């Protein structure tokens, strides 16, 4: 999956994506912090709850009714149908938070056309927050005062940057601890906000870089249009224009090259 968009109109697709988010919230939020939440382990030893499954089923049902010719790729039930127009779904990003009653989780919905995410919605109903974007339509979030257009920060120096590194274990497993230590030494502030919320903070201009590893396309596809339309940039960790490399680097754009240079320097013997 590449990350370069093409200009087109996606108003109808965005309206559908917002309805899909409504359907997802109706399934996930009532199960959040439920005493009878059902949790099991998948083959990869990650957790899945009854809410993950019900949420993805609800999205698939609505897509079958409204876009029967479109394909879908979801975390819980895999891929089916056309890949020219493919909805990429993570029903609950942050399942570990969800099952522990931590409200930092959300549904990620993206429409990719020929492999490029063009439309997306991220909904975090436990926080009462939602973000959305479409190519040439900008990136937006809802506020009590009305919808607000998103814009990444203008920070252009590493020493002024605030970043989210997701988790130490993730970087260690990827063999990237030298780069993480270099980041911690170079920036103003480092925190592990985690999962999709980090990308939304980036798009809002509240932090300036997010990087993570061992990610699938459904973990990050919905973040791409939102970050991009807010003025930021997303690539693989090495800067290549793909999000199929099990890693991602998202920045406010101005800091993308400085972070890539920092990472390269940290890897030198």
Automatic annotation (TrEMBL):
It holds the Pfam family Inositol_P. PROSITE patterns: IMP_1, IMP_2. InterPro entries: Inositol_monoP_metal-BS, Inositol_monophosphatase-like, Inositol_monophosphatase_CS. Its EC number is 3.1.3.15, 3.1.3.25. GO terms for molecular function: histidinol-phosphatase activity; inositol monophosphate 1-phosphatase activity; metal ion binding. Keywords: Hydrolase, Magnesium, Metal-binding. It comes from Microbacterium esteraromaticum. Its cofactor is Mg(2+). It catalyses: L-histidinol phosphate + H2O = L-histidinol + phosphate; a myo-inositol phosphate + H2O = myo-inositol + phosphate. It is an enzyme of class 3 (hydrolase). The keyword Hydrolase applies. Catalyzes the dephosphorylation of histidinol-phosphate to histidinol, the direct precursor of histidine. Pathway: Amino-acid biosynthesis; L-histidine biosynthesis; L-histidine from 5-phospho-alpha-D-ribose 1-diphosphate: step 8/9. The keyword Magnesium applies. Mg(2+) 2 binds at residues 90, 93. GO terms for biological process: inositol metabolic process; phosphatidylinositol phosphate biosynthetic process; signal transduction. PANTHER family: INOSITOL MONOPHOSPHATASE, INOSITOL-1-MONOPHOSPHATASE-RELATED. It comes from the Bacteria. Mg(2+) 1 binds at residues 75, 92, 219. This is Histidinol-phosphatase.
